[in-house]
Design a protein that fits this description.
This protein has 433 residues and is an alpha/beta fold. Helix content is 31%, strand content 24%. The strands form 5 sheets. An 8-stranded mixed β-sheet has the order 4-3-5-6-7-8-9-13. Helix 7 crosses helix 8 and helix 8 packs parallel to helix 9. It is globular and about 70 Å long.
Amino acid sequence: MDQMFNKKMETLSQEKIKENQLKQLKKTVSLVYEHVPFYQKEFKKKGLTPSDIKTLDDIQKLPFTTKDNLRDNMPFGMMCTSLDNCVELHASSGTTGIPVTACYTRNDLEVWSEVMARCLSMSGLTRKDIFQNPIPYGTFTGGFGFHYGANKVGAMTIPSGMGQSERQIKLMEYYGTTFISGVASYIVRLGQAALEIDIDPKDLKVRNGLFGAEMFTPGLKSRIMDTWDMDVHDIYGLTEMCGPGVSTDCDQHDGLHLWEDHFLLECLDPITLEPVDVEEEGELVITTITKTGMPLLRYRTRDIAKLYDQKTCECGRTHIRHSTIKGRSDDMIILRGTNMYPGQIESVLMKHRSVGGNWRMILSTVNDMDILTVEVETKQVLSESDALQLEKQLINDIKSVIVFTPKIKVLSPNTIPESGIKAKRVIDKREGK
């Protein structure tokens, strides 16, 4: 059994979890009904009052909340409490539009610290570790979430922030960093930066890492594990819930445990909005049940995943597990009638040892036909013949996954421009887009 930060809550029986969820759901529904004009209108449209919520299944009666609803009420229109009771503000990284603002009460920060401490402990962090946090400290939730969680665990934290890759490596070397966090694509970049200054990442003391903030395929995970010789865990979260800390995979690496004492999870068909069966892909829809600043009902995350059978995991935790995120429902690309996700392309690329960590898809229209070009950096500069060989292999491998033939551009390391905190994988230049 791997280590637990809060064994009592992490191993709570499903019966107790459900009992707690219903109590907290009723409390949350009353709170938003009393204080949030958006929910008051939505309840009125449905002819609902809080007293109609009698069982957990009644959650299906409640209105959904979308990112557009939040944007329409920004910055503070979704708040349940006065700003006098809030002590911190964060905002989404704005990868899909106007940033969404979330204000935190002291209770919200305590909950966030708790769930992050659980996630970090599940990934191997202890008070004996030296924890380096190469994530931006700012309105983006990532840096502070990891920082609060690591503090709660009691690990020595190096708040290195993001950027200056060579400096990050030097700090790891100098202080003997044993655990790192971050955005998955940035850790790949740090591995390349280390090699460029003749430091093999395997020679550093880093042996554990917890990464998230963007789609994270098994191929990318094993690439990081190989480069750094460390165990890699995946964390899921979003600003609208708290930031990182909603779920993480344990040492079994068979799905992410979502903290059901703080979040109520549904997996729905993104079109019909009806529940899907266990092991069937759908959109994760999450209700916060302990937030007091900006609680949300049935938030449509647009993240596609599936739920696993509800049985106690070998790690001993009882909380529900979901698969890694396959992609976002609004990330799905339709090209010549074929549906695809960027993750399918990444899975193919990461199987090739000469491929680096940075790549992107460019969609364009030529002679009224949609074309997919995949630009991919190599780990090292390749000879012309090796580059051509890799190009042919990638064309065939990607074609077998998405059915039609892409164009491939093999590029030297560090050719694709950096695009902020999260890697920008899709550039859509098609006519009419």
